């Protein structure tokens, strides 16, 4: 007799879990609640509370688009100081960061004028490469310049 009551208790706990699942709640959690307290009380509680959304919100990681390489490496050092990373992890992250993070934009060379790297077309006057054989502006055939 006691075994039948025990099996019915587990069966009604599973019914509570299925009812919770149909209302957007977690099956396993409500199965446990149904087994701990009376399954009838658990069903009453489920009927009273509003329906769930069916998913648990997950914390979003911070956006790294605006972070610079030095900001990211500072975060890695803080994680290492707190014991969340090993020295091997820190070294590996630094290597990956050097590969994956965009390099800073190159600094423009000082005192460079367009005339140093171009020449005017004799026909239209547009600036072209010094060794060009055809003008990209007027399509005139040109003689090569001596280097």
Question: Helical proportion?
Answer: 40-55%
Shape: elongated
What is the number of helices? 5
**Domain unit count:** 3
Number of strands: 2
**Biggest sheet details:** 2 strands, antiparallel
Radius of gyration computed on alpha carbons: 36 Å
The stretches of 5 or more residues where confidence is low (pLDDT under 50) are: none
Sheet-strand content, in percent, reads under 5%
Terminus-to-terminus distance: 106 Å
Which structural class best describes the helix and strand composition?
Answer: mainly alpha
Rounded mean pLDDT score: 81
Give the ordered list of helices and strands: HHHHHEE
Query: Strand order across the biggest sheet?
Result: 1-2
Subunit organisation of the chains: single chain
């Amino acid at each position: 007799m006691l075994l039948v009551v025990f099996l019915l208790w587990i069966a009604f706990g599973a019914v509570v879990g299925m009812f919770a699942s149909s209302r957007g709640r977690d099956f396993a959690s409500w199965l446990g609640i149904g087994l701990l307290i009376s399954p009838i009380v658990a069903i009453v509680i489920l009927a009273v509370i509003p329906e769930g959304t069916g998913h648990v919100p997950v914390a979003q990681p911070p956006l790294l688009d605006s972070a610079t390489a030095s900001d990211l490496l500072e975060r890695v050092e803080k994680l290492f100081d707190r014991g969340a990373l090993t020295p091997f992890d820190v070294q590996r992250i630094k290597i990956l960061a050097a590969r994956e993070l965009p390099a800073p934009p190159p600094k423009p060379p000082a005192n460079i004028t367009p005339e140093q790297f171009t020449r005017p077309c004799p026909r239209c006057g547009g600036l072209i490469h010094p060794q060009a054989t055809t003008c990209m502006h007027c399509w005139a055939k040109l003689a090569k310049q001596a280097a």
